[in-house]
């Protein structure tokens, strides 16, 4: 299949991915989202359109889970959407449209230089693949990301923060209603949780798209990390050790 153009491969994947299709249908038909079904159907169509034009590392089901959680936060609750790890800007474009629908801003954190130097390659993931996380992998330049959002998303709701997470995220001040974290590395996951989780509104969630990676799973499930770095017990999670997408919930105390 490697000789088949990626757009053709993507269309074949769409036709065969019943989970994505079921998730799209549930997103449109569910009755607990304060947004018209027409608007939700339009969003589904835009999500698929973006994936046909920009190579994305996530599934549509993952995006619809984030969208559902974000849209269920009452409009009167202040907060922004956050993305950590933009890659080529496909997810950023989708989240920018979600931000516009919910009347919020999107803050996108990325080095725009690919992955930092690390020693986390060669892990065997839950889906049986061997991870290749060499320095510079998954790079999308800022100009490329902005260009894709201008074409397919809403650049006006976005703020881009360029740099390594430990340099940029300590300056984050806005409350967060939903965050999508696709950073691949356990070290980067630690940084995102350390700086972003304390900004989550009660009941809001961080979604880690790296729940299939053993070292990331270990971080999420590490009681010592949560108590030592964040001064709290490990929060409730959905999908830990069973799903690529893990929802980490700031349950009101």
Structure description:
By secondary structure, the chain is of the alpha/beta class. The chain has a single domain (6-249), classed as Rossmann fold (3-Layer(aba) Sandwich). The protein has helices at residues 6-16, 18-29, 37-53, 60-71, 90-102, 142-152, 165-168, 186-196, 214-220, 223-229; strands at residues 80-84, 106-110, 158-162, 176-181, 200-208, 237-238, 246-249. Helix 2 (18-29) packs antiparallel against helix 3 and helix 5 packs across helix 6 (142-152). The longest helix has 17 residues, at 37-53. The mean pLDDT is 94.
Any key phrases for this structure?
Rossmann fold; alpha/beta; single chain; 253 residues
- What is the spatial order of strands in the main beta sheet? 3-2-1-4-5-7-6
Helix proportion range:
40-55%
Identify the CATH homologous superfamily.
Answer: Vaccinia Virus protein VP39
Shape: globular
Number of helices: 10
Question: What's this model, at a glance?
Answer:
This protein is an alpha/beta fold. 42% of the residues lie in helices and 14% in strands.
Could you outline the blueprint of secondary structure elements for this entry?
Elements: H1 6-16, H2 18-29, H3 37-53, H4 60-71, E1 80-84, H5 90-102, E2 106-110, H6 142-152, E3 158-162, H7 165-168, E4 176-181, H8 186-196, E5 200-208, H9 214-220, H10 223-229, E6 237-238, E7 246-249
Helix pairs in contact: 2-3, 2-4, 3-5, 4-5, 5-6, 8-9
């Amino acid at each position: 299949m490697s000789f088949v153009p990626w757009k053709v491969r993507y269309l074949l994947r769409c036709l065969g991915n019943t989970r994505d299709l079921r998730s799209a249908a549930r997103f449109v038909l569910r009755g607990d989202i304060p947004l018209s079904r027409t608007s939700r159907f339009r969003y589904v169509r835009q999500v698929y359109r973006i994936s046909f034009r920009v190579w994305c590392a996530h599934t549509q089901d993952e995006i619809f889970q984030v969208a559902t959680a974000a849209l269920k936060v009452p409009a009167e609750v202040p907060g922004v959407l956050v993305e950590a790890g933009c890659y080529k800007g496909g997810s950023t474009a989708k989240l920018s449209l979600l931000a516009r629908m919910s009347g919020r801003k999107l803050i996108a954190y990325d080095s725009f230089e690919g992955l930092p130097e690390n020693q986390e390659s060669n892990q065997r993931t839950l889906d049986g693949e061997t991870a290749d996380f060499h320095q510079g992998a998954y790079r999308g330049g800022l100009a490329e990301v902005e260009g894709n959002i201008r074409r397919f998303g809403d650049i006006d709701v976005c703020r881009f923060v360029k740099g390594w997470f430990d340099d940029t995220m300590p300056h984050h001040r806005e409350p967060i209603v939903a965050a999508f974290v696709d950073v691949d590395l356990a070290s980067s996951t630690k940084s995102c949780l350390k700086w972003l989780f304390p900004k989550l509104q009660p009941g809001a969630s961080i979604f880690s798209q790296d729940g299939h990676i053993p070292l990331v799973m270990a971080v999420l499930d590490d009681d010592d990390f949560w108590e030592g770095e964040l001064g709290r017990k490990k929060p409730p999670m959905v999908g830990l050790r069973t799903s690529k997408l893990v929802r980490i919930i700031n349950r009101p105390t």
